[in-house]
Design a protein that fits this description.
The structure is a homotetramer. Chain A is α/β, with parallel strands linked by helices. Chain A is built from ten helices and 13 strands. In chain A, the strands form two sheets. Chain A has a seven-stranded mixed β-sheet with strand order 8-9-7-10-13-12-11. In chain A, strands 2-1-3-4-6-5 form a six-stranded parallel β-sheet, sandwiched between helices. In chain A, helix 5 runs antiparallel to helix 8. Chain A is globular, with a radius of gyration of 19 Å. Chains in contact: A-B, A-C, A-D, B-C, B-D, C-D.
Chain lengths: ~350, ~350, ~350, ~350
């Protein structure tokens, strides 16, 4: 029996990637494809990979409340409201925005707003048990019973997958994350700085040192590693994200300890591949997939480990992971409708 | 029950795309992954989207002869030999090269070689009944009984899908095909002209006026449209192919007749989408898919119709179509393991 | 002694390219950098290659009328007005828009507007003698005395340079021009279809069969070749334009005649290079330059010649050619401040 | 009076960029264009931006010894030999390779070879006075009298311009440099990993933690900042290099001190532009130029400064800087034939 689901905020890139994945999912039926600003517009006008006559629906909470699961792919503002309403109505929600990822304090610090529902802030001590930060490889224990999943951000996903197993072996205060993303991570909005003529052949940092994902990484990185330096860059490709993570290794920790920590963490994971030290993950290997590839190398001269971690920002960094979380929440096989194999070349 | 298949010539781009598609196919097991020049090399060293320990196998005809179907993705030279040996051994073959697409005369004209087996030249009057040119949308009647399928070239696929339904309505001698392809169509070989530093930001024609696909298009374009002009171009993208086809419309033929011809040809096809006249297909909408999108517009001033037809050159233009043909040959549902939805953006 | 010049409409791509070229010109001083919508904005905010404190000026016709030459790089609407005012005030103008390129009838047909000043329509029989279509390689005789130069469009420049010398040798009605441009040709305006995430890895035709440059090509192509088919495409690169031109060769004309015609036309030209038949021009070879490279090959099977002609759409296709025209108009050495050597790779 | 110069190793990207710049230089005549492996090959076959009949010359030391200056753009192996021979013959040399940049010990450590000529190792205490590391913005005092200039590497140029003025204000051992380069930095050699199909849409680190430029940066970074972490990445663009540099600020140093240090260092420099803190340099703004743009921002939470520094790797990172050094060496105006304005967009 199929589960009836909705994608709300379907006119953004997270939304269209969900539609693509859901079209191939054997047991989820996409009943609603809602987008506030585009209601009535044919989906194909925005996304030519989805030809046909389907138009974006308006958002109707009552209609959504009758479904089996709702994916929210809106900005965090509308998500705060919709997520709370649907949670209160008892509908399982996977939210791709930042609305429910942090603590109440963290939300206030990084988003400049009061969080209206401490019980729905997955990173808060006051969060309800069925409100869960959805990075299954770090902790999938509570996802089966979750009602509201805060789907991680793209940069935090790559960074946490790369650093979390190593965190106990690193010196507090030593972590630097230099991250790079394709343009789809910046959304579908037309802006001067996303014009093809400007991005083609260009590379630049942006948003440092106060990008909001910094707070999310710090909240979910295990241990007490203290504030981290995080600098994102815009790379001339449409998909793909690479986090290059530096940390000073604690005294007495050997390179083999780091390798073992990564191997132990991911040996059984279907979507994470640890590459041999000295080789480096390529974002393109993950294009269109839910996979993550990473590797670590220790620099004995400086005492630092360098971890590079690659994902598709719309896959494991957004829609793919959302579907993985939905599978877990609904009691389906975790890998259904997903692949770790990217479209290459 | 799964069918046991092989991919021979798996180290090329057609090969790796087949491996990706086969990994998700529910009823085909990839028993052999052979590549003459790369035997013993880990697949992951060439194709990072396929991590793991699998190595390329050597080519062993006896081993292949014990399988249920063999995909040949080698150059046409080895394919001539392997295809004949496997056909004689009774193993179904889908060949992605040009070895079996033309007539004996056409092969001699365009490839400068005698064809050793007229019975296996799908375009020859002497071809056996179970040797078939595999463009299902034009004629899928004989694919169920085929033993050797000559999988069409990338440029011919896009061009024929665009022009074949219109051929009876066009003036002989009037057809010009201006085609553009991403670099993966030129293969994995490292050459100066495929160096990223040279292709990035560049565009050029090549191979005109004697590109070998000209002969294939002329052989399979219905009617007596006479010689065509065909000019391919290399475009700075890794996948995607667009054929812009011009033809003079016969006297008395209306724009609506052309539209009807396209609609009638493809209304029931799962992989071909005819877009409204005045809109234009985008190659990116098909990335990673087996789909084709096309549209036609008539220029009343010049009396010409302009058809643009887009595919993924490695999908519908190679591996996707090969799998579609294999599905038909094996009696499986034609769409199994395939999608018409590209990875976008 | 330096000539004092202005760039009006300097916030578009033609404008910024003029600013770059003028900064290196030894005898032109850029006194005014005007942009109606951006007056007061720092130039560097839009164009980071021009750092510093200079801000866009407002448009002040009186101020402009005191200069030695004005480059107009606005859309054709404002150019019609400004160009007429400055012409009447006796200031030499080089206009990069379509305002003054056609006849009055052509303007009405392709732009849907009455042309207010037949005497300033360079393509009209009523045009004044000092109003000149500025493609020096076709006719530079009147540029020295010009007061208003209609700078050709990007597609017409490449097409005319490729086809004009061959026109007498071609069959009327047989010409097809399949053109491809980088995104800067579409301007700086932010639009969905120019978003990097959409253009990257994509290729599509647009605007066929009624792109406005069709009329400009037909107006200035010598001989009576009749209506042509013109189809532009958007290519994933920021600069570069290639016109692939097809025409049926008249009976009795040999391939050598075509080669001679091209050679004779351009042997002494500093900015046009005819490549050997069988090789093909690369747009990247012209990046940032005022050069054009082209070659022709005859297909004996079809009786057609295929000419490919490459330029930088912002160079020879816009700002470079404007400066070349200004040099001629002002009596300077034609090549001053210009190069035929592109930035490669 | 023109100086007669040669480019040796002219078939590489540093070489072709020199040829482009020299073609526009008013007082340098390029007498010899030598390339060992390509002698006799037309330059235009490799570099279509340089059409014409000129062929690469063979390398003839006697011929070179009669010139006024020789640019060496070969790998460091041949450069060691040629540079020494020409120096001994009294011909001024600007060498773009790593042959003469380090100390004898450093060369042995990072290049695994004995340096044959301590007197020609610019980074060695034993170096002759007229053997100079050529980064004019750090120290141009000895360039006027130099006979052998070791032209800096691309990564060191961007990194040193970004960090050198700040070095006294940073904590030893705290520096991390995360660098990103376009593919032209990897040279013209055809390799699997430089194939367009692989690089397009891809991003990866490489060579960490032992890239040879690490040693060069450590050698020339002022102060005793200890070993640094250096990780280069390959970015899908042909030109452009960005170094993102992290360092912990010493106690008591204010953000304004860092800003002042940068401003004081570069206020009078024609090729270095310090952007306002909070804005970020774009590599594309420098394409084809000899400019560098950089900015610094302090993260009070972590106590680190983040400096991003952008250049064209073939411009200020190679050929442009070589010409700047040659100008100084020959007593010409330092900026002759160079620009800080990139080709944008």
């Amino acid at each position: 029996v199929a589960h009836r689901v909705a994608v709300v905020g379907a006119s953004g890139y997270g939304g269209v990637e969900l539609l693509r994945l859901l079209a191939a999912h054997p047991s989820l039926d996409t009943e609603v494809v809602a987008a506030h600003s585009q209601a009535g517009t044919p989906v194909a006008r925005l996304f030519p990979n989805l030809p046909g006559d389907r138009v974006f629906d308006a958002i109707d909470v009552e209609q959504l409340a009758a479904l089996d699961l709702v994916f929210l792919a809106t900005p965090h503002g509308p998500a705060l409201e919709l997520g709370a309403a649907l949670y209160d109505a008892g509908v399982p929600v996977v939210d791709l925005s930042a609305a429910f990822r942090l603590s109440v304090d963290g939300f206030s610090t990084w988003y400049g707003e009061e969080h209206p529902r401490p019980d729905l802030a997955a990173g808060d001590p006051a969060a309800a048990d069925d409100v869960v930060y959805g990075l299954p490889e770090l902790d999938r224990s509570r996802l089966a019973g979750a009602r509201l999943v805060a789907n991680p951000g793209c940069y935090p996903t790559a960074t946490l997958l790369g650093l979390a197993p190593l965190a106990p072996l690193l010196v507090p205060g030593s972590v630097v994350v230099d991250a790079k993303s394709g343009t789809s991570g910046a959304g579908r909005g037309t802006k001067d700085e996303l014009h093809f003529s400007h991005v083609h052949g260009d590379l630049a940092a942006y948003g440092a040192p106060a990008h909001r994902h910094t707070g999310e990484i710090e909240r979910w990185l295990p241990g007490e590693l203290g504030p981290i330096s995080f600098t994102p860059h815009l790379v001339p490709m449409s998909r793909g994200l690479l986090a290059t993570c530096y940390g000073t290794v604690r005294d007495g920790v050997a390179a083999a300890d780091l390798a073992d920590a990564l191997h132990d963490a991911y040996a059984a994971e279907p979507f994470v591949e640890v590459l041999p030290s000295g080789t480096f993950p390529h974002t393109k290997a993950l294009a269109g997939s839910n996979g993550c590839q990473l590797s670590a190398v220790v620099d004995q001269r400086t005492g630092r480990v360098v971890v590079t971690s690659a994902i598709d920002n719309l896959g494991k960094g957004a829609a793919g992971q959302a579907l993985q979380n939905a599978n877990l929440l609904l009691g389906l096989e975790e890998t259904t409708g997903l692949t770790a194999i990217g479209v290459y070349p």
